[in-house]
Amino acid sequence: MTPVSRRAFAAAAMASLLVGCGGGNQAPRTRQTTAGHRESTPPPSSTPVKRARALARSAPVRLRIPAIGVDTPVMRLGLAADGTVQVPPITAHDRAGWYRDSPTPGQVGPSVILGHVTVGAYGDGVFRHLARLHRGDRIEARLENGTAAVFAVSSVRTVAKADFPADDVYGNVDRPELRLITCGGPRSGSVYRDNVIVFAALSPTSP
To answer: Which residue ranges run through the membrane (predicted)?
Structure first.
């Protein structure tokens, strides 16, 4: 992804998350460190992880995160008519969504999966407990080709949407990584102030 397209994707993703994550009863719990920026572990650049061999391109079809009870189908997301990144629909059977123009899980680069923290009148979203993850927690993405890309969490950050770390999230990396993104923090009406971002790296145990 070029720097120009990365910036455009970052702006689109922030806009879509701003309007797409509200309308529920609970916000995820986080650990506060400084005003407007909370994290449970250091940023990904300070977390050394043994390199794993990259996997062939294959779209994700299911996502499992045992530590927070996530076991969800994964849909594909593109761009909406207004140029923002699509988000999963607000339904009783909430699902996560993979942005199809990002690498697939296990390819070199940051694969991006979005999900709701709340889904309107239906209550909790599939990523309602994303902020509770910790370094080392396992994330498994099942792929269309029948294999699994297994990741280990390297950091969990909660940041104000106004300070969204676009370079950290969408910037080029030289190994397979995963980004999980939802909303969080204080809420005004149906809009959350912050984003919760999970950074993870492919585990050497992946096929």
So the answer is: none
The closest of 84, 117, 104, 63 to 12, measured between CA atoms, is 84
Are the C-beta atoms of 111 and 176 separated by less than 8 Å? yes
Q: Quick check: 188 and 72 in contact, CB under 8 A? A: no
Give how far Cα 186 sits from Cα of 123, 131, 198, Å: 17, 13, 18
CA distances from 177 to 52, 83, 103, 205 (A): 10, 25, 9, 14
User: With contact defined as beta carbons under 8 Å apart, do 7 and 130 qualify?
Assistant: no
Q: How far is CA 101 from CA 71, 85, 86, 197, in A?
A: 23, 10, 12, 19
Task: Tell me the per-residue pLDDT of 40-92, one tens digit each, with 9 for 90 and over.
Answer: 444 444 455 457 899 999 999 999 999 999 999 999 999 888 777 788 888 88
Beta 176-188 vs 96-99: how paired, if at all? unpaired
pTM: 0.78
Q: Which superfamily does 3-202 belong to?
A: Sortase (2.40.260.10)
CA 82-109-150 angle, to 5 degrees, is 110
**Coil, helix or strand at residue 31:** coil
Query: Do the Cβ atoms of 115 and 13 come closer than 8 Å?
Result: no
